[in-house]
Design a protein that fits this description.
The chain contains no helices and eleven strands. The chain is mainly β and 127 residues long. The strands form two sheets. Strands 2, 4, 5, 6, 9, 10 and 11 form a seven-stranded mixed sheet that branches. The protein has a four-stranded antiparallel sheet with strand order 1-3-8-7, with no helix packed on it. A hairpin with a 6-residue loop joins strand 4 and strand 5.
């Protein structure tokens, strides 16, 4: 059974930092490109960041570029989203995503190739 389990969400003040984790099980983690998406109330789910299977190439939404950092540890089957300089508009449910055959870069534009989603973790940034 495949599971993506997010953790680390919570309430933080604007300007603060938070670190989200996604633990994967039931998949050969290193063969999946991984990503983070978010969905704010009343809005569509949007891309946040993605990372390739091996090698470290990363991709970011313009809204988080320079503030968020995605990384992965293939030995621990974990992908991390480090979020700094948080803003109230970052408030959303954050979802971990995995694609076996799609590319990390493609996550920028489509969720068509996403094979698995986590259940999400809530981030609330207060002003």
């Amino acid at each position: 059974q495949v599971q993506l389990v997010e953790s680390g969400g919570g309430l933080v003040q604007a300007g603060g930092s938070l670190r989200l984790s996604c633990a994967a099980s039931g998949i050969t983690f290193s063969t999946f490109a991984m990503g983070w998406f978010r969905q704010a109330p009343g809005k569509e789910r949007e891309f946040v960041a993605a990372i390739v299977r091996i090698g470290g190439n990363t991709y970011y939404a313009d809204s988080v570029k320079g503030r968020f950092t995605i990384s992965r540890d293939n030995a621990k089957n974990t992908v991390i989203l480090q979020m700094d300089s948080l803003k109230p508009e970052d408030t959303a449910v954050y979802y971990c995503a995995a694609t076996r055959f799609g590319s990390a870069q493609a996550m920028l534009n489509t969720v068509q190739n996403i094979d698995y989603w986590g259940k999400g973790t809530q981030l609330t940034v207060s002003s």
